[in-house]
Amino acid sequence: SYILTQSPSVSVAPGETARITCGGDYIGGKGVHWFQQRPGQAPVLVIYYDRDRPSGIPERFSGSSSGNTATLTISSVEAGDEADYYCQVWDSTYDHVVFGGGTKVTVL
Amino acid sequence: QVQLVQSGAEVKKPGASVKVSCKASGYSFISHDIHWVRQATGQGLESMGWINPTTGNTGYAQKFQGRITMTTITSTSSAYMEVRSLKSEDTAVYYCARRHDFGDYIDLWGQGTQVTVSP
User: Fold this and answer.
1) Whether residue B103 has pLDDT greater than 90
2) Taking Cα atoms as reference points, which of A1, A39, A3, A23 lies closest to residue A72?
3) Nearest residue on chain A to B110, alpha-carbon basis
4) What is the pLDDT of residue B101?
5) Per residue, what are the HEC states of chain B?
6) A 29-68 residues with CB < 8 A to B
7) Which pLDDT score is estimated for B76?
8) At residue B31, what are phi and psi to the nearest 5 degrees?
């Protein structure tokens, strides 16, 4: 089935920009969605279809996707952004949701 | 309030079965597929499959085929997932989640149900 690859961790200072990547074959041709999961909580959708934000998600969260890489960007990082972030696509071959392995964002 | 509320924590012995429930409220239950996702401690999200509440059609991840059954009861806006022949590796938090009605992404999650498999 389709495989999504994320780097395990990213560290960023408060106020700086965090970039989280998600790799997959021709991922630019799929819709990529991103979730934030804080410790002990259920995931929360932060970006859908590459770059759209659900209501209530700050503009600091943005997304892009092209070629074999999708990127979630968090600008002006705050302590509350410390969490695990997962990318997700729909695998139309197997009619199935696929998640990346997750990236832990640490705010220094 | 739009939400998914799951049943409480379970402790089971190896070889037993567990059935987790998920009750939807605040939206039209039949308009959205329900997905089940699990997460072992310190691990990532693992998709187990989905069910269409209107048709009853299901799509199970190959890894779980033959060992899980997903069902819904539309009159109570509830979804269920049964996992049989439990192993210690099935110890995890199990989430139900709602798929967006015309998108291929999950837009709402339950709070999770801890299932512990221990002798």
Assistant:
1) no
2) A23
3) A42
4) 84
5) CCEEEECCCEEECCCCCEEEEEEEECCCHHHCCEEEEEECCCCCCEEEEEECCCCCCEEECHHHCCCEEEEEEHHHCEEEEEECCCCHHHCEEEEEEEECCCCCCEEEECCCEEEEECC
6) 31, 33, 35, 37, 42-45, 48-49, 54
7) 97
8) -90, -5
Test mutation, B38, B41, B45, chain A, max A CBs within 10 A: B45
| CA separation for the pair A36, A84 (Å, rounded) | 6
pLDDT tens-digit series, residues A4-59: 999 999 999 999 999 999 999 999 999 999 999 999 999 999 999 999 999 999 99
Residue whose entry in the numeric block shows the structure tokens 């939206």: B27
Residues in chain B: 119
Whole-number Å distance between alpha carbons of A91 and B51: 16
d(CA B76, CA B62): 29
User: Is B42 an 8 Å CB contact of chain A?
Assistant: no
Predicted confidence at residue A1, as pLDDT, reads 85
Confidence label for B102 from pLDDT (cuts 50, 70 and 90): confident
